[in-house]
Amino acid sequence: MIIPEDLLIEILKRLPVKSLCQFTCVSTRWSSLISDPYFIDLHLTHSATRPKLLVGFHDLDDECGGVFSVDQLEPHNGRTLIATLPFSFHGWTGPFVLQSQQGLVSLEVGGHIQITNPLTGMYATFGLPRITERYASFSYYQQMHSFGFDPVERKHKVLSTRVIIMGGLDGRLIMESWVLTLGTEKWRQVEGCAAHDKKGREVCFDGVVYYMAWSRLHGVHGDDYLVAFDVRTESFRMVTIPAEAHKDIHRALLIKFEKHVAMVDRNKALSCEEIIMWILEDFDQEIWKKRVFSLPSYWKEIVANRRVFPVGTVRSGELLFAPQTLLKPVCMRSEICGLDDVSPEFGVLTFLDHVESLLSPRAIPFEELSVDFPSKIH
To answer: Which interval of the chain is the signal sequence (predicted)?
Structure first.
C-alpha cells in the first residue's frame, strides 16, 4: 500500500526533526519529500504553533556552554517543562546565546561566530571580518555581534560591529559594521549609524534586531539609545529613551512583549514588589508607554534570596523569570531534567523562543548534508 503524498505530508509535518532525519533512510521517496524546500517551510510553519524555550548556559567550571530545548508550558494545564536534547559547545567564549531564528541558533565559540541547528547537530563556523588596514593601530577595540532573520526575503544574517578608538582613549572614534548572509559566506560592509557600544542581549522579531547601546563621542560614554537594525534593508535607527525611563530602569533588559519591544530592569525583581516595563508602542513616532506589574504576595517565598530576573514572555503572554544559577528548583509549576552532569554554577542562563526546523546553517540543500545526532558538538 502506498500512502498518498498529501496524506504523507500531513503526517510528517507533525513529527519532530529528529524523527524526520531518521525517516530519510526509509526510501528515496521519503528522503526527497522531507528534503524538499516546500516541505521544510511547511514543517517550520507547523512547528511555530508549538514553540519551545531554548535554554543556554555557560558552565564556569568546565569552560563550556550548552543548549537545552524545553517544551513551553501551556496556560493553566499544569504541564511540566521537560528539558531534552542537550548539546554542549566547548570553547564557548561568548557570554550569550545571541539569538534563535527559525530554528537556527547563533553562538560565539572560540572567537568565531557559530550558527547551529541544535536538533540536527549541523553547524557552520564563520571567521570575523578583518580590521581595516588603516585602523590596524588602535587604543581600544570592541567586537559586537547580532543574529537576525528577514521574513520578507527569508534570509538569515549576522551583523558584526566593531568600535575602534584611535590615538588614546579620548581619541577619534570609528565604528565599522559588517553583514554576512547565510549561504554567501562573505562579509559586506554597511554604513549609516553613529558610533555606539552595544550592551546586553538583543531581541529580533518581525525582521528587526533591537539592542541597547551607549552613544560614543571621543571615547566618552554618551546617552543611552535603543538601536534598531532592519535585517532586510541593512539600515540602523537609534531610538531615544524617555528621561523618566532612566529613573525606573538602571540595567535594561530587552524583551518582546505583546508584539512590541520593551525594557525591564533585570535587577529589581528580587528587591521590589513590582516590575516596571517601558514598551515602545509606536516605533515610527518613538512613543513609549510605561506599565507596572505587581508581583504576588508569595514572590519572596518563591525566590528566597536568589537573583531572579525577567527574561521574556512565553506564547501564553506570561512573563518568564529565570535564576542566575540553578542550585535548586525555584519555579513551582515546572521541572527541568537533564542537567545532572552540569556544574551547579552557571555564568549566564539565556531563555529564547525557539521552533524546530530542518533548515541548514549554511543554507545548503538538506539532501546534500550528512546528518547524525551527536551528544556533543566540537
So the answer is: none
The answer on 109 and 2 residing in a single domain is no
DSSP state of 317: S
Contact call for residues 138 and 164 (beta carbons, < 8 A): yes
Q: How many domains does the chain have?
A: 2
Residues of the chain short of pLDDT 50, as ranges, are: 75-76, 218-219, 328-346, 365-378
pLDDT digits (tens, 9 = 90+) for 273-325: 778 889 999 999 999 999 988 888 777 777 776 677 777 777 777 777 777 66
Partners of 114 in the beta sheet? 107, 125
Distance CA 369, CA 228 (A): 35
Same domain, residue pair 134 and 18: no
DSSP string covering 232-267 = TTTEEEEEEPPHHHHHH-SSEEEEEETTEEEEEETT
DSSP letter, residue 50: S
Instruction: Give the strands of the sheet with 112-117, arranged side by side.
Output: 97-101, 104-109, 112-117, 122-126
Q: Are residues 314 and 227 in the same domain?
A: yes
Residues 76, 42 share a domain:
no
Amino acid at 92: W
Task: For residues 315 and 341, state if they share a domain.
Answer: yes
Phi, psi of 4, rounded to the nearest 5 degrees: -55, 145
Q: Provide CB contacts within 8 A for 283, sequence distance 6+.
A: 228, 239
* φ/ψ (deg, to 5) at 10: -60, -35
**Domain region containing 4:** 1-47
